[in-house]
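Following up on my earlier message about zinc ion. Here are the inputs again, as you asked, copied directly from the submission form:
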Amino acid sequence: MSDHEHDHEDDEYDHEDDEQELAEASEHAARRHVALSVVRQYGDPVLRMRAGEVESFDGELAGLAERMVRLMHDADGIGLAANQIGILRRIFVFNDDGEDRVIVNPEITKSGNELETSEEGCLSLGSVRLPVERPLEITIEGRDVAGEPLQLGLEGLSARVAQHELDHLDGVLLIDRTDADSRRAALSQLRPRLRLS
Ligand code: ZN
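Thanks, got it. Here's what our run produced:
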């Protein structure tokens, strides 16, 4: 093999590599776009409603959980509650330190005394990010998709995400949890979006 041919092959290889990366990136962007188009946005009344207890742990519920996990990943989210896709049932999915979790009929049974303020975003609030103070550690109890009792001790980001998602099931959004100035700023950012929809 001559140097020339070698270089040429390298060029071609890099080129194909770039093209593949580009194709993957645009496929990801397309999937994200589709996922976000099914996530209800601020102003949708379903985001302000309380979801009802899940009573049957059947195949339909398992299918819903799978769909929610897929949507969460496609949307680049770290949590998704059923209200956010227009389903008023008490189920949410979240990323717990790299692991996908599903929890049904969740309840916080213990909250640590230590509080932490950190910025949160929400798939239903566009690019809005707001500081929210929450307990750093919680114990959350509920059921898995098969109806078996589930208890999780969570801290840090996992605890924060679980509290954010549980809020959704009660119709509570992070604009309700932030300070007055941040809320005012967020609402002025969200209002023009409403006029467009
Ligand atoms: Zn949210």
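One observation from looking it over: Helices lie at 3-38, 59-74, 156-169, 174-177, 180-196. Hope that helps, and feel free to reply on this thread.
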